Amino acid sequence: MPADEPCPARTQGPPMARDEAPEEVRSVDGLLVERLRRGDADAGYHFFRDVGEPRMRLNWRTLVAFAHDLVACAVAWLAAFWLRFNLDVPEGFSATAVSSLAWVVPVHAAFFLGFGLYRGIWRFASLPDLKRIVLAVGLAAVMVPVVLILFRVNAVVPRSVLILDPLLLVI
């Protein structure tokens, strides 16, 4: 049932525009509750379509920024190994560094997308944007060893690499 079409069981007046609604109804939870109370059968669909931050715009600039961040993630991971071993990575650890990239980069990519790092215009970046970047990198850094252990990846990653990687990535 479309959102504009009234529900036959509804006894209230016409639906309010979002700007006319009281503050508690305009909140994320309040809007969904209000739509469910009105009897909107598609409330969940319209809720997720209308509410929340703007969706990520898929254009060439966004793709370039995302690709840049993935390359920066891989470079930071390899640089962390390089710095850990004083610019001379042993053969066994260099193979580990390269093979673990297949797990590290997708984990970081998921957190970068999940925290919405590509939704805004970077010309107007602010402290909340920096907070999202630091949170995304920090949580991804926590999840990397969890993923490596959970999926039993045969990669011995030094603890110092797990600390250096997010530091290099934020810089």
What can you tell me about this protein's structure?
With 171 residues, the chain is an all-alpha fold. Helices cover 63% and strands 0% of the residues. The protein is built from 7 helices and no strands. It is globular.
Descriptive key words:
63% helix, 7 helices, single chain, 171 residues, mainly alpha
Write the layout of secondary structure elements.
Blueprint: H1 23-26, H2 28-38, H3 43-50, H4 60-84, H5 91-114, H6 127-150, H7 159-170
Helix pairs in contact: 4-5, 4-7, 5-6, 6-7
User: Structural class of the secondary structure composition?
Assistant: mainly alpha
Instruction: Note the run of SSEs as H and E.
Output: HHHHHHH
Total DSSP E strands: 0
Q: What value does the average pLDDT take?
A: 79
Morphology = globular
Q: Could you tell me the radius of gyration in angstroms?
A: 23 Å
Helix content: 55-70%
Task: Provide a concise account of the structure shown.
By secondary structure, the protein is an all-alpha fold.
